[in-house]
Structures are given as C-alpha cells and as structure tokens.
Write a structure and sequence with these properties.
With about 450 residues, the protein is α/β, with parallel strands linked by helices. Helices cover about 45% and strands about 15% of the residues. The chain is built from 17 helices and 14 strands. The longest helix has about 30 residues.
Length: about 450
C-alpha cells in the first residue's frame, strides 16, 4: 500500500518505518525541514533500539522517504496517518492544534478518495473534529472527494517500540465502516498472527481505550508507591509485599515496582487529559486525580530521604547520579523524576555528577540546560569519583550488576539511595554500603 505519515516524531517515525519494513511505500512528512534533512542523511532524532537500522535499510530500498511537502506525500497515498504531537496544555488537556492543522492540510491537498487514520493520542471526540475540519476545507475547494476517519491508537513502549509494532499484542481499530475495517485488516495482516489481536470498535471507544490503558498502568504505579510509603512507616518491606501480591495472577508483577514515580511522554499527559475530559462531561475523576497527586509527591521521596541523612544544607556534599531517562531503553526525559530530584538537590547546595547511557545529550540541551554546574561523566564508574553517595534513578541493564568493590573504591562515602530498589539489602551489607530504598524502613 501507499501510505502518507504526517509527523516524524516518536510514533510517526516508528510506525512509518515498520510499515515500510513489510513492503509498503511510505512517505513521512513533517514541517520541520531540519529534521527531514537529517532523516534523509540517516540521522535519527530519537534513540530507539533497532530503529536506526530499519530507517536506513528502508530508505536505501526506496520503501521509505521523507519530505516537507504534504502535497507530495498525499499525491499517491491511499491511506494517510496523522501522527503528530498532542502536548499537554496549560490546563492539562491535550493540545489538538497540530492534529487539526494536519486535518486542514489534508483537506487542502488531497486529490483522491482516502482513508484518514488518527494515530495520535487524542481525547474522545477528536475524530469528529478532524472529520469536520477536512470537510470544511474540501467544501472551500468545491470538492466532493470522499474520506473516512479511522481511530488506530498506538501502544508502543519506549525502548521496545519496533518490536511492539512488529509483534503487537493488540491492534485497535475504531470504525463502523466495513471498507475502512477491511483496508486496516489488509494493512496490519503481516503483523497479526491471531484474529483476537485485531479488535474492532467505534471511534470514540478506540479513542478512550488508549487513555484508559495508560491511566490503568499509571494507577498500578501510584498504588504500589502508596503501599511502599505505608510499608516504610509500619516497618514492612515493600519488596516482600510486592512478591506477595504479584504472585496473584489477577494482579501480576507488571507495573508494581516501587520507585520515584512515573514519567515520560504518555502517562503524565494522558492521565491529566482524561481528568480534563471527565470534567468537560461533568464527572469528577477522583481516582485519576489521586493517581496524579501520589505520583507528584513520589518524585520527592528520595530527596526527603537524602535530607534526612544529611540535613537541609547540602553545601559540601557531592552526589553521583546513575540514570536520567524516565525508563531504560530510551533517551526520553520528559517528566522524568531525575529532573525534579537533581534540581532540588542543587537548590540545597549539593554538587552533582551524572551518567546515563543515552540521555545525557537530552539533559544538556533541554532538560537540565539551566544547571551548568552539573558534571557529565563518560561512564558509570567515573561518575562516582569523590561522591558522598550514589543516587540510582533509572534501572539500565548496565547498572544491575556493577563491580561493587570498584564502586566503593571510587566513592568518598558509601551510601546508595536506590530509587528503583534494584539491589538486595543483604548484598549491600556484604560490600559495606549503607543502602537506602523506597518502601523499606
């Protein structure tokens, strides 16, 4: 099939590349000329395992191309995906300006009947807004071209997005038109091995499914962090509690790891957007508000532990930080706990050296650019030099089994504040570390 992909951000680039991988002709279009120029040179703007190779291979084969000209992208496409950003607005709602602008551009430039697929994460009712905008533009042109709006939310995990797309656990299709459903079945057939994976529903239900899924996962994270805080106060061990409840198949172990709270581009934005949507329809989403509140407070728990250990005046104290990204496998620092924790410690007078395998450029250029005193180490061990304590914030694989003897020799103090509860207390005692966890007194 011939596909136009509007947007070359995380979702658009991964989706377009994976469609090209199975033989479709894909043109990705973006208003950012600098980004398009880089993509044409093989420079990938995000870190995602396997993506760079897939982009380069499909670009060289001619299956994948990049342009700033939406007319060119739509000229031969029979399916057009909208995969632009929906950033959080000041009131927490999803900002639809880029989605609606994409819709206007489609209405202005489409030259034949087309299927329009909304891949962006959007509030319930956006499909109708997109339909209305495209229709208005076609009417201005005096055009009778036909189109249909299909909702096809993405469920990609950062750090595993290409694999998720190639072997999905479900494909949600929001449409009530047989022809639209059939074209989407054909498009996704190379990725689907079971009929149960392909789930058909109406557009509004598909739109809500995406928000509901992310809000459910965020709820599990806030729940285990709430229990961790209770466990610490009553003298229980959250690691043992997690094992006890996770063994129940109705609960499972996924997303019940205590820590510093969730971050990233999805959970914070989507929880808030669903809260705002609920308010627009006269409903007070108390549970979701609590999920958000618990998460906000959880990002400061580790700072509270550090202050308890060293006091509120941290002048003369030096900390090493392992991990900046909100999760391993990505360079994404949006809403990452590391931003809050590092800024708080610096405001209390501490000095900090950081190391992250992938996110340090993002930190320097965007998220921590206002803190020039931060030192960026070339590797995890160099980051430990003369540190009074290590703060572990992202559970990268290379942090799982480090050389503890090497660590102890590099550090001035022997304290580890573990924001991901990655190590065993018994092991830490064996190596002579003072080990501070989340949810353990």
């Amino acid at each position: 099939m011939k596909i136009a992909m509007i947007g070359t951000g995380y979702v658009g680039l991964v989706t377009g590349t994976c469609f090209a991988e199975v033989g479709n002709d894909v043109i990705c279009v973006d208003v950012d000329k600098n980004k398009i120029d880089k993509l044409q040179r093989g420079v990938i703007p995000i870190y995602e395992p396997g993506l760079t190779e897939m982009v380069k291979n499909n670009y060289e084969r001619g299956n994948l191309s990049f342009t700033t000209d939406i007319g060119e992208a739509l000229h031969e496409a029979n399916i057009c995906f909208i995969a632009v950003g929906t950033p959080m607005g000041e009131d927490g709602s999803a900002d639809l300006q880029y989605v609606l602008q994409a819709a206007r551009d489609i209405g202005k430039h489409m030259v034949h009947d087309m299927f329009i697929v909304d891949k962006s994460t959007v509030p319930v009712g956006t499909g109708e807004k997109v339909r209305k905008v495209i229709k208005e533009e076609l009417t201005k042109r005096g055009s009778n071209l036909k189109f249909d709006i299909i909702s096809n939310p993405e469920f990609l995990k950062e750090g595993n997005a290409c694999a998720d797309f190639m072997t999905p656990d479900r494909v949600i299709i929001g449409s009530e038109h047989p022809q639209s459903i059939e074209i989407m079945k054909q498009l996704y057939e190379p990725f689907i091995r079971s009929r149960e994976v392909f789930i058909i529903m109406d557009v509004k239900s598909a739109e809500l499914t995406k928000y509901a899924a992310n809000s459910m996962l965020a709820t599990k994270i806030s729940f285990i962090n709430e229990v961790a805080n209770i466990a610490e106060r009553v003298g229980a061990d959250i690691n043992k509690v997690r094992h006890g409840i996770g063994s129940d198949q109705r609960i499972g172990y996924s997303f019940i790891n205590p820590g510093c709270g969730y971050g990233g581009s999805c959970f914070p934005k989507d929880v808030q957007a669903l809260i705002r949507t609920s308010e627009e329809y006269g409903y007070d989403a108390k549970l979701l508000k609590s999920v958000e509140s618990v998460n906000k407070l959880q990002k400061e728990v580790l700072v509270q532990k550090i202050v308890k250990e060293y006091g509120t005046d941290l002048h003369g104290k030096h900390f090493a930080v392992w991990g900046l990204a909100f999760k391993p496998g990505t360079d994404d620092m949006r809403e990452a706990p590391s931003i809050i924790i590092i800024s708080k410690l610096l405001s209390l007078g501490a000095t900090i050296t950081v190391y992250d395998p992938k996110a340090m450029d993002m930190a320097k250029q965007y998220y921590l650019q206002n803190y020039p005193s931060i030192v960026y180490a070339p590797n995890k061990y160099d980051a430990l030099a003369e540190a009074d304590a290590l703060i572990l914030l992202t559970e990268w694989q290379e942090f799982q089994s480090p050389d503890f003897i090497e660590m102890k020799g590099r550090m001035k103090g022997h304290t580890i504040f573990d924001g991901r509860n990655q190590y065993k207390l018994k092991l830490m005692k064996h190596y002579g570390f003072h080990y501070v966890q989340i949810g353990v007194k």
